[in-house]
Amino acid sequence: MGVSEMQLKTFKMSTNLNLLSKGLIRLGIVILLFIIAPITITMGFKAIDKFTDSPDFYFAYLFLVLGFLILFYAIYFAFKTFNLLSKAIFNNK
């Protein structure tokens, strides 16, 4: 059951290294965003519990909204990054 060299070339998948490097950089950014978002959300909830004055209270909600925006953007950016990585690895055009 020998496999010829022509058959091996047919099944050989080439990886686009430029897209792969861009995808890995974006993956690092996604990981950083997934670390920053829960920290910001936690800071917002703790600030709501601690501050009751009007100016500080608005900053607490600002942290909370900012944390959720970062979280939703991180999820969106993760889908875009995994799409880019799949294009790089499987050479989809």
Keywords:
93 residues; mainly alpha; rod-shaped
What do these coordinates show?
With 93 residues, the chain is mainly alpha-helical. The protein has one domain (16-88). It is 84% helix and 0% strand. It contains three helices and no strands. It has helices at 5-11, 17-50, 54-90. The longest helix is centred in the C-terminal third of the chain and has 37 residues, at 54-90. The radius of gyration is 22 Å and the shape is rod-shaped. It starts with a helix and ends with a helix.
- Given as residue ranges, the uncertain stretches (5+ residues, pLDDT < 50) are none
Q: Estimate nothing, just give the exact number of structural domains.
A: 1
Q: What count of helical segments does DSSP give?
A: 3
What structural class should be given to the helix and strand makeup? Answer: mainly alpha
Report the biggest beta sheet as strand number plus sense, adding barrel if it closes.
none
Looking at the chains present, what oligomeric state does this protein adopt?
single chain
Distance between the termini: 33 Å
Overall shape: it is rod-shaped
Overall residue-averaged pLDDT value: 86
Q: Specify Rg, calculated over alpha carbons.
A: 22 Å
Tell me the β content. Answer: under 5%
Helix fraction, binned, reads: over 70%
Give a count of the beta strands, DSSP E runs of length 2 or more.
0
Order of helices and strands: HHH
